[in-house]
Design goal:
CATH architecture of the largest domain: Alpha Horseshoe
CATH class of the largest domain: Mainly Alpha
Helix content: over 70%
Largest sheet: none
CATH superfamily of the largest domain: Tetratricopeptide repeat domain
Structural class: mainly alpha
Distance between the termini: 36 Å
Number of strands: 0
Order of helices and strands: HHHHHHHH
Shape: globular
CATH topology of the largest domain: Serine Threonine Protein Phosphatase 5, Tetratricopeptide repeat
Amino acid sequence: MMVLRVMVILTVFAGCALAAGSDTTGNTTTLSDALDLVESGGCGEALVLLENLDRRESGNPDTLNMPGHASRQIGRLDDAFAWYEMALAIDPLHRGANEYPGELLLETGDVAKARERLAALETACPDGCGELDEFTEAIAAATR
């Protein structure tokens, strides 16, 4: 159930407003709380909360992957790559931490490195998964 919730919320991340503010004054303490903020469209605010959450829960690839995706959505591409790399250092087969930087690599024109992320997803999802399906389609579209 949690995996489904995270997948749905990750989809919402893609639609976050690029100009969302980051002046959160609340004390959100869980990944779920930060993800609820993402659902409401506040990627910038969610990023601040996710960064704070990572400080408290370091070593969790989910709390590293999510700020990567939020950073990407607000145009902080170098930061996004750094977050993804930290998540992959902990879990090289993390589905989101392979799909999202792969998509970013496609956006920056690095198809060869994107294919490396695809290979990792194929290993992580031998029976298939949503991340693999979406990323396979993204590579196909980018190489037409």
